[in-house]
Write a structure and sequence with these properties.
It is a single chain. By secondary structure, this protein is α/β, with parallel strands linked by helices. The chain folds into two domains: about 1-85, Methionine synthase domain (Methyltransferase, Methionine Synthase (B12-binding Domains), Chain A, domain 1); about 90-210, Cobalamin-binding domain (Rossmann fold, 3-Layer(aba) Sandwich), CATH 3.40.50. It has helices at about 1-15, 15-30, 35-55, 60-85, 105-115, 130-140, 155-165, 185-190, 200-210, and strands at about 90-95, 120, 145, 175-180, 195. It has a five-stranded parallel sheet with strand order 2-1-3-4-5, with helices on both faces. Helix 1 crosses helix 3, helix 2 runs parallel beside helix 4 (about 60-85) and helix 4 packs across helix 5 (about 105-115). It starts with a helix and ends with a helix. The relative contact order is 0.13. The structure holds CO-5-methoxybenzimidazolylcobamide.
Length: about 210
């Protein structure tokens, strides 16, 4: 039985989306539970992708292809997970801040989080501070992630933290920031809870923040 989970994980790592979807279905047909397939196959595979990406052994295109395979597997599992009411690792609201249109890194972070079992809400790019506030009220996430790629838009992270505080919702969420010009020191300075340098670290940080 464990063998098929290993096959799912290694085919996911190799980006074999059709094979992953078939193997997920096969595992279910053999009587495995949706959560077992999710944790032992898809998430285990994405964890390995994350580790090798962090170590510099995998690059962005390979991670995107693996994430596509993960989505193919999730396509089979999703209806069953919803039925079984499997608890998610946490709800993660993510967006690229106001004035910034870069979304490749943000999308990568989102995919890795989904691979780790987080439910994500993607606000897209050029997200106004007030739009984060409204989305927090609507979706009640555990975590918020902000991405910025421009030195000129980093300031919008502070503006968003301030807007969340003014709206009285800051304490209801943990805030993570990232993107090429962002640093740990900057995260602390603006009152965010955490900084993650890359998509794989974002998963580790999200897991520890979500407790
Ligand atoms: Co832009 N751009 N760009 N660009 N662009 C940069 C960022 C730049 C460094 C290029 C350069 O000059 N060398 C420079 C910024 C300089 C600065 O501010 N210091 C720059 C500029 C100046 C601009 C424009 C102003 C150019 C112009 O029009 N004059 C303009 C701005 C538009 C705007 O946003 N308003 C602009 C436009 C664009 C394109 C639209 C053409 C395109 C974006 C397409 C898209 O995203 N859909 C683009 C691109 C592609 C780049 C570069 C080449 C690549 C960025 C990227 O996707 N990297 C970039 C130069 C470079 O980085 N080599 C550049 C790959 C991605 C996987 O990495 O996004 O860093 P990254 O994400 C990483 C980590 O940072 C981290 O995890 C990811 C994966 O490990 N991470 C997080 C990211 N978000 C995170 C959030 C987290 C945690 C981790 O928690 C929530």
């Amino acid at each position: 039985m464990a063998d098929i989970l290993q096959q799912i994980a290694s085919n996911l790592y190799d980006g074999e989306d059709e094979v992953v979807a078939e193997l997920v279905q096969k595992a279910l047909d053999q009587g495995m539970g949706a959560n077992e397939v999710l944790q032992g196959g898809l998430i285990a595979g994405m964890d390995e992708v994350g580790r090798d990406f962090k170590a510099g052994d995998l690059f962005v295109p390979e991670v995107l292809i693996a994430a596509r395979a993960m989505h193919a597997g999730m396509g089979v599992l999703r209806p069953l997970l919803a039925e079984a009411d499997v608890p998610s690792a946490g709800k993660y609201l993510i967006g690229t801040v106001k004035g910034d249109l870069h979304d490749i890194g943000k999308n990568l972070v989102k995919m890795m989080l989904e691979g780790a079992g987080f439910e994500t809400v993607d606000l897209g790019t050029d997200v106004e501070p007030q739009a984060f506030v409204e989305a927090v009220r609507e979706h009640k996430p555990t975590l918020i992630g902000m991405s910025a790629l421009l030195t000129t838009t980093m300031v919008q992270m502070r503006a968003t933290v301030d807007a969340l505080e003014e709206a009285g919702v800051r304490e209801s969420v943990k805030i993570m920031v990232g993107g090429a010009p962002v640093t740990e020191a900057f995260a602390q300075e603006i009152g965010a809870d955490a900084y993650a340098p890359d998509a794989a670290s974002a998963v580790d940080v999200a897991r520890s923040l979500a407790g």
